């Protein structure tokens, strides 16, 4: 048996394997619901352990959050396998809701991170356009996989819930920012996720879909779970609004997509279901 030609063939075959041939990546967007006593039996103290259990059971590798207040983000730091980035929307440090991003420390090395506001003055805490009650924030991180070296840019956003102009303009601001990032780092994979407070028929979601791929629409297997993500803590009622999304650049395959309806007894861990996509970086 002539081993040398066989070894040469095997070497050539291994060399031709694509760089992405590694483990899939579980990415999620999860609006945590802020910590408020107005929620009665659904207050954060009654939900936090269920949130942590859900994240671990479904083996999130990377997830963006919305509405997390400082104490909620600190509670999630108990998930010691994760590191996180993000600031408070009210002062750019700790105050107010966060759009933090958590990622597995064993899998990713952080290269850079930052934040910008969804407003006409994105470099400082501010309200934008017709938003009335709240500053709105985007947090981002650039990561590199420790094995394989794949780089990805992840941004977590929370669009305004009252101002239709603010939602439209926030999408345009986000897309301009992403376009500039892709010019500077053309090899990066891009994941933009969050609570867009917008249904699929809106101008802003159509704009996002025009530049990026909606994970739900390109999943290689049929989407799992309901076609909506906002449950309003109404256990047993069919959710009606899809407002949470995961958008992707090309060269990312969506193996599976799900809206996770896990409950703790007859209570949901949040008033939003997390949306989860199992991805393969090409």
UniProtKB/TrEMBL annotation:
Domain Endonuclease/exonuclease/phosphatase: 29-272
MF terms in GO: 3'-5'-RNA exonuclease activity; endonuclease activity
Top-rank lineage group of the source organism: Bacteria
The keyword Hydrolase is annotated on this UniProt entry: yes
InterPro entries hit by this protein: CCR4/nocturin_mRNA_transcr, Endo/exonu/phosph_ase_sf, Endo/exonuclease/phosphatase
Statement: the UniProt record of this protein carries the keyword ATP-binding: no
Pfam family membership, one: Exo_endo_phos
Keyword vocabulary terms for this entry: Endonuclease, Hydrolase, Nuclease, Signal
Record-linked CDD domains: EEP-1
Signal peptide: 1-21
Name by which UniProt lists this protein: Endonuclease/exonuclease/phosphatase family protein
Natural source organism: Paucibacter sediminis
Lineage summary: Bacteria, Pseudomonadati, Pseudomonadota, Betaproteobacteria, Burkholderiales
């Amino acid at each position: 048996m002539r081993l040398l030609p066989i070894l040469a063939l095997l070497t050539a075959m291994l060399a031709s394997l694509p760089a992405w041939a590694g483990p899939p990546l579980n990415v999620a967007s999860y609006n945590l619901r802020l910590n408020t006593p107005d929620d009665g039996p659904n207050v954060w103290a009654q939900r936090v352990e269920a949130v942590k259990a859900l994240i671990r059971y479904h083996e999130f590798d990377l997830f963006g959050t919305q509405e997390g207040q400082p104490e909620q983000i600190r509670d999630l730091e108990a998930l010691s396998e994760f590191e996180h980035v993000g600031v408070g929307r009210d002062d750019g440090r700790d105050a107010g809701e966060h759009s933090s991003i958590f990622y597995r420390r064993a899998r990713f090395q952080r290269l850079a991170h930052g934040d910008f506001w969804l407003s006409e003055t994105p470099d400082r805490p501010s309200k934008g356009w017709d938003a009335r009650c709240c500053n709105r924030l985007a947090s981002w991180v650039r990561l590199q996989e420790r094995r394989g070296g794949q780089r990805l840019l992840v941004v977590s956003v929370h669009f305004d819930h009252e101002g239709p102009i603010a939602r439209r303009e926030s999408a345009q601001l986000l897309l301009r920012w992403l376009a500039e990032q892709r010019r500077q780092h053309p090899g990066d994979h891009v994941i933009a996720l969050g609570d867009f407070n917008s249904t699929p028929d809106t101008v802003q979601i159509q704009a996002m879909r025009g530049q990026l791929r909606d994970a739900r629409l390109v999943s290689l297997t049929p989407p799992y779970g309901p076609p909506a993500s906002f449950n309003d803590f109404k256990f047993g009622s069919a959710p009606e609004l899809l407002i949470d999304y995961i958008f992707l650049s090309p060269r990312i395959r969506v193996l599976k997509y799900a809206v996770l309806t896990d409950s703790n007894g007859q209570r949901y861990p949040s008033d939003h279901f997390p949306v989860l996509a199992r991805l393969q970086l090409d």
